[in-house]
């Protein structure tokens, strides 16, 4: 059961508590698991309390998040944590726990959960009558606690890796935006210059006494349009660089591609490259994080633009979508392609064919796509250039989105 819950603590704890209660005849079992390195650092004192108990002949479970240092210090669980060893109490007053089969003559066994010699939790099992210590049973429960400790360690390692990946992803976004910053500055300057011109024209009309309501309304409407355009560009930049919370929403992929193309239009134009879109109509929705997926698109399109020098014929980048069993996005360029021996290293972290490249863009992009349940691949075109293919699952039934 623990092995089958390789990436989640709570299902494994729930299954273990239920099974041990059934096998050992315990009316109540509790587990306290420390979430120190599983949640954010600000939650280092948060514990998960999980219970399995008999109610009317049936086994039931519940859980809660505890904003406190851990299990009660005076109880068997607190004692087991302090001693770092199993605690067995033949007689224990458990009447305050509210379980009908438990009273003042219950027995209890508490066992600490360790990972790398650090206590990460504790298990408690309550019997309905006084019982002498059973060493074979304690040994079996100790093995279970040990396996749960390994599971907690695996989950912590995965969460550390995810936090490191999130940091690298943000580095990749910053690197991408550095490459288009000059073009963005030019793009923002255009509506700002238009606002200055329209405002100056309005003042000129006022000074000459020719500022009727209709003329001023037209001028102010143009000022509003240009200000909104500049605001949109800045907002796109801020959204792309913000810390990502991994929010999953229903997304129109065609709209996301159109926004990305608008953001990179000046970059492509300055490089003498044309962006072309062939987007299938009525494309089914996907579920994902728009900032993460836009980062992937920016990485792929910028790479495609930079892959083509002025000697390439037909210097354009094609972004296309197609719906099948999965939603497919293809970013194709007309560059020289890549040698076969380099294709095998395409998604290797810190491998780059650019003189000043970080070598994390494609690696992060693949991780993001795989996090969304998809696949990212790259290959040379039969005639000229390369194509990167993103496959993402369609929305089926996602009430959480």
What does this structure look like?
By secondary structure, this protein is α+β, with helices and mostly antiparallel strands. It folds into two domains: 3-161, Beta-Lactamase; 245-401, 2-Layer Sandwich (Heat Shock Protein 90). It has eight helices and 13 strands. A hairpin with a 2-residue loop joins strand 2 (46-55) and strand 3. Helix 3 packs antiparallel against helix 4 (213-241), helix 3 crosses helix 5 and helix 5 runs parallel beside helix 6. The longest helix is centred in the middle third of the chain and has 74 residues, at 135-208. It starts with 8 loop residues before the first helix and ends in an 8-residue tail after the last strand.
Provide a short characterization of the protein structure.
This protein is of the alpha+beta class. The chain has helices at 9-24, 76-83, 135-208, 213-241, 253-270, 290-306, 340-343, 361-371; strands at residues 28-34, 46-55, 58-67, 87-92, 106-115, 118-127, 249-251, 274-278, 286-288, 316-323, 326-332, 375-380, 386-393.
